[in-house]
């Protein structure tokens, strides 16, 4: 089937199934709810209320603990609409794509799509529409959904999932400017789905700096360079860093869209990383790992 379509949105498809439940995370409501609640309760509200967060999208056994640091900063009482920007892992997209579904299923209960906002974005002519296969095969958006449902509880909120393609720097800016008015809305929260360095031969990325310590230490230094540029909201610096070191940050395009949206919206505030972890600490060239980081942007002086 087609990866994406340019057809008009009619939201005829009803519910997207939780296609990764039972493999990437538990499909049992009580088990999953218990895990998420435990991770969230272990974390303090330190940088809140978040208007935007960066959260990982690997299996919860790897990154669930780190994800909690970001999700804990969302205030469910004031949140009415949630944008999720996730990178496309399986299909090539030069731009961004929207969902044709009316709701997304999670083991904790469904999440309603804000079809009005999705249609508004579609009318700009800048978005494609995901096919059902593309929507259900992609994990970068799905891995945020159960955390959203857990944090929001029974409160209603409208979801705006956006699949982000391999954008040029100009298109990152274009989408950032397009989304800036929504980011200004105090009732909206943006979730940027990204893992950080994918290191090892299986990822075709084996960069090691000449600094001290293990390969894992080198990976962390590399990631933290990128994290510092993100905290500084330096979109041009982040782009230059990626060109120079080629760090395999899979959500680099959604992150860049956020940086441009913050700039275009002119919102003062602090973007701060709250946690960092690695799936394993590499010590030998034969090892591999994926890094995870959690961040929150809080508006203010």
Question: What descriptors fit this protein?
Answer:
13 strands, 301 residues, ten-stranded mixed β-sheet, alpha/beta, 9 helices, 22% strand, three-stranded mixed β-sheet
Concise synopsis of the structure shown:
This protein is of the alpha/beta class. It has helices spanning 29-41, 60-71, 115-122, 132-137, 142-152, 169-183, 215-231, 235-245, 252-265, and strands at 4-5, 13-16, 52-55, 81-87, 96-98, 101-104, 111-112, 127-130, 158-164, 188-193, 198-199, 269-278, 289-299. The strands form two sheets. Strands 1, 3, 4, 5, 8, 9, 10, 11, 12 and 13 form a ten-stranded mixed beta sheet that branches.
Would you kindly provide a written description of the structure presented here, covering whatever features stand out?
The chain is an alpha/beta fold and 301 residues long. The chain is 36% helix and 22% strand. It has helices spanning 29-41, 60-71, 115-122, 132-137, 142-152, 169-183, 215-231, 235-245, 252-265; strands at residues 4-5, 13-16, 52-55, 81-87, 96-98, 101-104, 111-112, 127-130, 158-164, 188-193, 198-199, 269-278, 289-299. Helix 7 (215-231) packs antiparallel against helix 8 and helix 8 (235-245) runs antiparallel to helix 9 (252-265). It is globular, with a radius of gyration of 18 Å. The termini are far apart.
